[in-house]
Amino acid sequence: MIITWSDILSIGHDTIDREHKYILDTVTRLYLIEVDNKSKDESVMLFGEMIDLIVSHFHNEEAVMRINRYPNTDHHIELHSELFSRLTDILYLLETGSDRVAHELVQCIDDWAHLHILVQDRMIVDYLEANHL
Predict the structure, then answer these.
(1) Distance of CA 79 to the CA centre of its chain
(2) Cys staple from 38: which of 33, 64, 85, 131, with CB 3.0 to 4.6 Å?
């Protein structure tokens, strides 16, 4: 099953948390469309919306890192690029009618939530707090 927002995923930065929640809500909607075998056009449209949200979120998060001179900014941006690449691969699966879309989406978002949000994004907030930023 797809991951949904809970306070466990909160990293303590209101803007970033709000964006994470909205992205996860959108992913859940997409997952449900895929599992219910609803319209491919609807799935592609919602996937595009999700990508737009994620790209906007990455830009916002990267701006926070740059403004505050976060020392791991370059590495974090590389992780964003890797996630975007995975999502592009999933979009290809969706567009070609693969039955693996829901599975790949769940795996990607699970990794993002547990490895990226709870580890990498939390490190940003820890840095901001430690430096009183």
Answers:
(1) 11
(2) 33
- Render pLDDT for 7-22 as a digit per residue (tens, 0 to 9): 999 999 999 999 999 9
- Supply the pTM of this predicted model: 0.89
Q: Where are the domains of the chain?
A: 7-130
Spatial CB neighbours of 54, under 8 Å, sequence gap ≥ 6: 23, 83, 84, 87
39 phi-psi bin (left φ>0, alpha ψ -120 to 50, beta other): beta
> Of 92, 110, 117, nearest to 125 (Cα)?
117
Tokens coding 33: 């469309």
Distance CA 38, CA 112 (A): 25
